[in-house]
């Protein structure tokens, strides 16, 4: 066998398909389901639940538009779960078909390395030893548990949280990163009482405070209680409930809930892979160190996706995979992260790309910002979602746009245009001179650019 890829998540299956399109025969090994974390237990099912939550919450909230409804809102959560699963099954089936169409040799089983050119594939009771010339590690990541409180009974990870049998009365969430914030928001919309208990000072601490403020305020409006700087000290975990003791201002506090959802980060799946037999360089967090061609310190071994240093996101994995697929087929190319969008599917959504102002200054730019509020945008008003703003970060000597930050309606879609702008080193003038249709949320991009040029029309 020439090339073997371990893990058929977004990283692994994308690399396999691209390499195959470019004429390279690859073997892809998966121990569970193709589509990996993202399709089965991550991006897709979580966004389905978030959408279900938005729609359920909206059923009663349009009194301003003159719409009221008598009686009680009903939610058949079993049906919601079935709908969510049908989307997952459709996408996973689609990926299976694509793998087949591209004649990728897909094998199911658990793989680990025996030495630099052999791996063991265990499938049920059958063990096979496979020889390879090149290998790609794309084994992804898993939820990190709290140090002393494993995932069991009512202490759950994101995977279990996506498939709860019914809406909890009271969901406790430990961790205010994007996964915790998204699931807290979804369950609050679906009718649960939600309390976030977190160690750090604020939610989403890696994002700019001005954006997070908008999201935090809206979560609180939904009734989500947010307890910050409150490390968890004790968890009493039974089959039916959980009691959590946390410390706040030096005092121990107790809170009860149906579940404690722990979202305090994810660990790379680099154990049990026999990496010690390869002598790969790893970070302290056990991630596999690679160069910009996704190559490890062993030149015939590559790694992509969540097992490599950097932010754990599907589109980073698939971008690396596209690049690696080409490299495997003999092309000269490399990854570049000039504009890597990051999205939080909060309410309203948050999205950033390129550099923050601080990072831009550190990188030597004469960084300035210009922003435009959604409250002054016609389309946002017609959608009745007017909170938030769109901000451009640009170099005020050249007017080159080097970063963007959005909190507001459809931020997840708007960020795509700005990622293209940054990737292609466009300027405020380029954006302002591009005709944007009316009425659209994307007009805020032109408006923010005009603010940056000191030629605002709409504000
Ligand atoms: P994975 O998708 O984890 O796939 C790895 C595959 O390798 C798995 O199928 C696994 O079974 C297989 N495998 C592991 N070990 C072995 C072995 N020894 N032998 C054979 N097979 C093996 N990212 C976004 O960009 N946007 C989002 O909105 C988003 N939302 C998320 C929501 C949640 C709740 C979670 C948990 C994650 C979310 N992510 C999101 C992150 C995204 O899912 C990951 O970044 C992405 O799946 C990484 O792809 P990957 O191919 O590196 O790994």
TrEMBL record:
<feature type="binding site">
    <location>
        <position position="306"/>
    </location>
    <ligand>
        <name>FAD</name>
    </ligand>
</feature>
<feature type="domain" description="FAD/NAD(P)-binding">
    <location>
        <begin position="1"/>
        <end position="321"/>
    </location>
</feature>
<dbReference type="InterPro" id="IPR006258">
    <property type="entry name" value="Lipoamide_DH"/>
</dbReference>
<keyword id="KW-0560">Oxidoreductase</keyword>
<keyword id="KW-0676">Redox-active center</keyword>
<feature type="binding site">
    <location>
        <begin position="175"/>
        <end position="182"/>
    </location>
    <ligand>
        <name>NAD(+)</name>
    </ligand>
</feature>
<dbReference type="Pfam" id="PF07992">
    <property type="entry name" value="Pyr_redox_2"/>
</dbReference>
<dbReference type="InterPro" id="IPR016156">
    <property type="entry name" value="FAD/NAD-linked_Rdtase_dimer_sf"/>
</dbReference>
<keyword id="KW-0547">Nucleotide-binding</keyword>
<keyword id="KW-1015">Disulfide bond</keyword>
<feature type="binding site">
    <location>
        <begin position="312"/>
        <end position="315"/>
    </location>
    <ligand>
        <name>FAD</name>
    </ligand>
</feature>
<feature type="binding site">
    <location>
        <position position="47"/>
    </location>
    <ligand>
        <name>FAD</name>
    </ligand>
</feature>
<keyword id="KW-0285">Flavoprotein</keyword>
<dbReference type="InterPro" id="IPR050151">
    <property type="entry name" value="Class-I_Pyr_Nuc-Dis_Oxidored"/>
</dbReference>
<dbReference type="Pfam" id="PF02852">
    <property type="entry name" value="Pyr_redox_dim"/>
</dbReference>
<dbReference type="InterPro" id="IPR036188">
    <property type="entry name" value="FAD/NAD-bd_sf"/>
</dbReference>
<dbReference type="GO" id="GO:0004148">
    <property type="term" value="F:dihydrolipoyl dehydrogenase (NADH) activity"/>
</dbReference>
<dbReference type="GO" id="GO:0006103">
    <property type="term" value="P:2-oxoglutarate metabolic process"/>
</dbReference>
<comment type="similarity">
    <text>Belongs to the class-I pyridine nucleotide-disulfide oxidoreductase family.</text>
</comment>
<dbReference type="InterPro" id="IPR023753">
    <property type="entry name" value="FAD/NAD-binding_dom"/>
</dbReference>
<feature type="disulfide bond" description="Redox-active">
    <location>
        <begin position="38"/>
        <end position="43"/>
    </location>
</feature>
<feature type="domain" description="Pyridine nucleotide-disulphide oxidoreductase dimerisation">
    <location>
        <begin position="341"/>
        <end position="448"/>
    </location>
</feature>
<dbReference type="GO" id="GO:0050660">
    <property type="term" value="F:flavin adenine dinucleotide binding"/>
</dbReference>
<dbReference type="InterPro" id="IPR004099">
    <property type="entry name" value="Pyr_nucl-diS_OxRdtase_dimer"/>
</dbReference>
<keyword id="KW-0520">NAD</keyword>
<feature type="active site" description="Proton acceptor">
    <location>
        <position position="438"/>
    </location>
</feature>
<dbReference type="InterPro" id="IPR012999">
    <property type="entry name" value="Pyr_OxRdtase_I_AS"/>
</dbReference>
<feature type="binding site">
    <location>
        <position position="265"/>
    </location>
    <ligand>
        <name>NAD(+)</name>
    </ligand>
</feature>
<dbReference type="InterPro" id="IPR001100">
    <property type="entry name" value="Pyr_nuc-diS_OxRdtase"/>
</dbReference>
<keyword id="KW-0274">FAD</keyword>
<protein>
    <recommendedName>
        <fullName>Dihydrolipoyl dehydrogenase</fullName>
        <ecNumber>1.8.1.4</ecNumber>
    </recommendedName>
</protein>
<feature type="binding site">
    <location>
        <begin position="139"/>
        <end position="141"/>
    </location>
    <ligand>
        <name>FAD</name>
    </ligand>
</feature>
